[in-house]
Specification:
mainly alpha, 13 helices
Length: 293
């Protein structure tokens, strides 16, 4: 469900990045503020968990590589990268996550799991190349900075998935997220406040405000409520592989709206993606018991 929301979010973020006129760091600060307030409000109705200072420092690091840097780099990337290029580059995330989990969590890289990852990788690149998804911004060229931001996004989020599973499993979702978004908000303010002062919020259309609302509530609060649940139940590599749903959803929306068409080739490519995910799901390395220590 998290990556279904993220898939819809890609479509909306294209409009927001090109039509809102708001700087990416301002959009992120808005997300961190609202989501943080919501998580702190929810925490008032839940049993209080004491977080020792040592773990607060770990949560600080998790916030940096799990929310702040991935979201800031993504919002910058989508404003400077063609949708097809963005989708292709982000397909490396499960591969990076597989190696990150092997290094930091000693998650074994079996032939079956590696084969499943590569099968899905081939399928998703194939389906993207066969599609005409532009999101209404096909005239925008991909810049070197756009590619850099995208690669940074993939690498940093893969590092988060590969290193923070035990920490995420140690506390409730609400406890983790309320602290992570608070840290992210504090980190963003020195960069966002000067941009807020020169932002023309009145020029943002009602449609884009609705898309920003989706971005803040569903793609931030709801998605980050669900993501840690998946992190504590399945291996990091498999968590990241569900990210392949994002371009598929974007393409499906384009097909439904008449901007693309369904072909036999795309069906075969999509089947390769799902087959690869199934292979990784059924591999021995996919089953584990979380060690919270």
């Amino acid at each position: 469900m998290t990556y279904v929301i993220f898939g819809l979010n890609i479509v909306f973020c294209r409009d927001i990045a090109t039509e809102s006129g708001l700087a990416p760091i301002v959009l992120f600060a808005m997300r961190a503020l609202v989501a943080g307030v919501l998580f702190w409000l929810v925490s008032l109705f839940m049993p209080r968990e004491k977080v020792p200072f040592r773990d607060l420092m770990k949560i600080f690091g998790a916030a940096v590589i799990g929310i702040f840097l991935p979201q800031v780099t993504f919002l910058n990337a989508i404003a400077q990268t063609k949708p097809v290029d963005l989708s292709i580059i982000t397909t490396v995330t499960p591969i990076l996550t597989m190696f990150s989990a092997a290094i930091f969590l000693r998650e074994p890289i079996t032939w079956k799991k590696a084969g499943g990852v590569m099968l899905s990788f081939v399928g998703i690149v194939w389906i993207i190349l066969q599609s005409n998804v532009s999101g209404g911004v096909s005239d925008r060229e991909t810049t070197a900075m756009g590619i850099t931001y995208t690669l940074l996004n993939c690498t940093i989020f893969a590092l988060y998935l590969g290193t923070c599973r035990k920490l995420v499993a140690r506390y409730s979702v609400v406890t983790m997220m309320k602290w992570m978004f608070l840290v992210s908000l504090v980190l963003s303010l020195p960069f966002a406040l000067p941009k807020v002062a020169v932002s023309d919020f009145g020029a943002v259309s009602a449609t884009v405000w609705w898309e920003i609302g989706f971005l803040i509530f569903f793609a931030t609060f709801i998605a980050y409520f669900l993501l840690p649940v998946g992190q504590t139940r399945i291996r990091p590599t498999l968590v990241s592989m569900y990210g392949y749903l994002q371009p598929i959803i974007a393409i499906a929306i384009s097909i439904a709206s008449g901007g693309d068409r369904l072909t036999f080739t795309k069906i075969v490519a999509a089947l390769l993606v799902f087959a690869g995910v199934w292979i990784v799901t059924t591999s021995k390395a996919a089953d584990f018991k979380v060690d919270k220590q």
